[in-house]
Amino acid sequence: MVTSDRQANPTAQVVDFSNTEIAFAHKSDGELRRTSWLFRLMNKAWLVSTGGSFGLWLNSTGISLFNPLIRATIFKQFCGGISLEDSTEAIKHLQENGTMSVLDFGAEGNVKDEDFDRTLEENLKAITYASTNPGVPVISSKVTALASEEILEGFQTGKLKTQAENDAFSRVQARVDKLCLAAWKNGVAVFIDAEETWMQDTIDHLVKVMMEKYNKEKIVVYHTYQLYRKDKLDSLKADHKEALEKGYILGAKLVRGAYMEKERERARVKGYPSPIQETKEDTDRDYNEAVRYCVAHYETIALCNASHNQESNLIQAQLIAEKGLPRDHSHLNFCQLLGMSDHITFNLAKAGFNVAKYVPYGPVKVVLPYLIRRARENSAVSGEMSRELSLIVSEMNRRGLN
Ligand SMILES: Cc1cc2nc3c(=O)[nH]c(=O)nc-3n(C[C@H](O)[C@H](O)[C@H](O)COP(=O)(O)OP(=O)(O)OC[C@H]3O[C@@H](n4cnc5c(N)ncnc54)[C@H](O)[C@@H]3O)c2cc1C
Q1: pLDDT in tens, 99-151
Q2: What's the gap in Å between 256 CA and the centre of ligand 1?
Q3: pTM exceeds 0.85 for this model
Q4: In angstroms, rounded to a whole number, what is the distance separating the alpha carbons of residues 184 and 218?
Q5: Half-sphere exposure of residue 60, counting CA atoms within 13 Å on the CB side?
Q6: Interior CA angle at 380 toward 38 and 396, to 5°?
Q7: Which residues, listed in sequence order, are joined to residue 229 by a DSSP beta bridge?
């Protein structure tokens, strides 16, 4: 029946994101109640604001008094575990529900060489782990967890003058290469996150060198394009042209971008034009155009649509259906964060698309800043229910749990 509907009209009901039954099928009634309680707490802006600042302060002092409480609540919702082994259960659970995992070691704000080396070791361990776990085709890494912001910014502005600075940059190149080589050897892919504009040209340079080296026969390295930037739709197309000329597959993870306020504020203070689109509609237009472009060139671009925006996900799903492309083609991927937008992830999975969750992991102290960002994102300033909470409430109503 489904097949004949698809043949008659390939876009009919490609995927229905309002289906909360499929979205939350992986949660028992008890789990759904606990999730609802957690999102109700996060909905209280004052609680998230004071709790978040207090949590960050406690973390900086090394006091871990509340770690067991955090682990049992918000950590459980948004993180896989405190280590790779501890994340195995979450990965298995996702895989049983048709969803892959992208392992993301939650290190942030590193400043010393030994921290960068430790993060690299963690990333390499994640690659080895992924190579034996079919539920993990990709790991994710951030260049600022492998390099100091000063060196990245210095390279971008041509200010690396001393031998010591140039040596430091060579060590960054060596770390990134070691990471991508290990991924290539182990049959695992790597997403390299996009960051702030004042370091991103350096990241662009590092990642393009890696794609040219390791993406010749298969997709290993994915670059990230932030479409909230005015220039990134053009960069995507220019990078694709360059990849075609040089004979490698372009890895394109698309995101809207996470540092909008910071970018605008810096541009204002320093007196240069903001690199960020003027309106949300402009960002959406470029994002959706980038999705269309990547799907149109899927044979030479490996796409990961990393978004919680329903329309942007639907556009890709509909294009795949309209063009009659294989839904499980390895170049046509979707990705959301663990603990969020289950209505998108599990409905895409059920409809046969390649979908994954970013699964952050690490000790509570390491992932706490990430957890606080997730809580802030889910707290409603207007007093209305967040999107996540209203979906959970719909499912509870459907199950007669309210
Ligand atoms: C799997 C995954 C990986 C990610 N990796 C990265 C990464 O490597 N680097 C990174 O920077 N971010 C990353 N993000 C975060 C991402 O950039 C977005 O901040 C977040 O996903 C929200 O955007 P959206 O597409 O989900 O949905 P939406 O809620 O539709 O979009 C919100 C986004 O739109 C943009 N926006 C909002 N208001 C305006 C405005 N007034 N003018 C212009 N633009 C506006 C902002 O980018 C904002 O974050 C990732 C997200 C996911 C799901």
Answers
A1: 999 999 987 777 889 999 999 999 999 999 999 999 999 999 999 999 999 99
A2: 4
A3: yes
A4: 9
A5: 7
A6: 45
A7: 276
Tell me how far the alpha carbon of residue 259 lies from the centroid of ligand 1, in angstroms: 8
| pLDDT tens sequence across 280-303 | 999 999 999 999 999 999 999 999
Residues 253-288 as b/e (b if ≥16 CB within 10 A, e otherwise) read: bbbbbbbbeebeebeeeeeeebbbbeeeeebbebbb
Tokens, residue 130:
């992924």
Give residues (CB < 6 A) around ligand 1: 193-194, 224, 226, 228, 255-260, 276-277, 279-280, 283, 306-309, 335-337, 358
pLDDT for position 9: 52
Q: How many helices (H) and strands (E) does the chain have?
A: 18, 8
Q: Are 143 and 110 in contact (CB under 8 A)?
A: no
| H helix runs in 135-248, sequence order | 149-156, 163-186, 197-214, 232-246
Give the position of tokens 């942007």: 312
Contact 135, 95 (CB under 8 A): yes
Q: Is the pLDDT of residue 7 over 80?
A: no
Residues in the chain, total: 402
400: left (phi over 0), alpha (psi -120 to 50) or beta: left
Six token digits for residue 137? 């085709």
Cα angle 198, 181, 241; round to 5 = 55
